[in-house]
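tool_call: predict_structure(chain=1)
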Amino acid sequence: MSNISFDKKEFRSLVLNLKKLNPSSGAPQLANFLQQSENPPSLQRRQLVTKIRRTLTRNTIEDKKRSGHPATTSTSSFQQKIKTSLRLKKGASIRNVTSNLNRNGIKCFERTVHRTARQLNLKWFKTRKSQKLTEDNKTRRVICAKQLRMKFGVEKKAHKWKWNRLVNTDFSGKFTLLPFQNKRNDDIWAEEGEVVPPVLINAPTDKFKKGIIFWGGISSHGLIPARAPINFTEWLHQQPPQKKRKYLTGDLYAKFVTEKAAPAIKRVFRSTGVIPIFRDDQDSKHRTAIVMDTINSLFGERVDPEIGDSKLADVWVIENVWGAIKERLRGQQFNDASELENQVAQQWRIFTVEKCRQRMEEIPDRLKRVIDQDGKQIHNHS
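tool_result:
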């Protein structure tokens, strides 16, 4: 307690005690007594009388309750509650934490919680999506991980080491021209009864976001293709018959592998002296008879679809490549497909041959972690 607060309460206590001893005395008489004492207050008489009268009226030594919202962010106990509620907690949004605190009797606002979080140097991280695994999936993952390690090798110096021959390919998922928009930020403020112009109240949006799907691969000899991933969306729209919306089929995928994927892989491996081992994802369209025959005719060896389980997305490093590029381009807006394609190509070239080699050599260790964790999801940094 500060000295000022203590002096105030001491003065009020003295006044109230004097009043009890002299019930008939009013503020002027009590002021006379105090001014004639050994330590008179350093106040003018009018101020002293006013202060005594106010104390007698309130009849308490406690401070008067202040108006407005109490300052809570400066208290260490409030900051500790915020830190405990927010830090490393799932579903701990500013809104949820504020609501929980208010339900527990701690009155505060969202802006107060947000400001306190910033003062505590807490940073918000967007959660990453990961595949959902059943018990059967986990069991299957362990079996596949053991088979892959046995077939392609565990140590780089081992005779059966084949990871330097593997080409891990996949489609990127859609890169959109426009960033994700929070509809809550599209509202318009207006006075009650005011007519909002149509140009403001209407928010035109595309039913299907425009974007590009790319195809690419990673190997110990670098990314494939080396300069930029293949614009699969553009290739798909060039295939007959020309339709507004076109979907990938097994026949089209076989044609794409023949015309685009295989030549790109062979260009990278031409000077390496090793034969590439092809691996793609486990989409059902990639397992049709025509696709299987096409890949078998183009590549001497491939990862058996029965071994390369579809639930090993956290093991195959091409997923990390696409994830890293998407993270770097998050929130950016592109004027056209050409600008988006150029930006993706720039990010693609950041992955050096050495970095790709390191990533490919991590696969046996990732498989071991799957085995050690009984098939549970493993987490890798992009």
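agent: The longest strand covers residues 166-176. Proceeding to next step.
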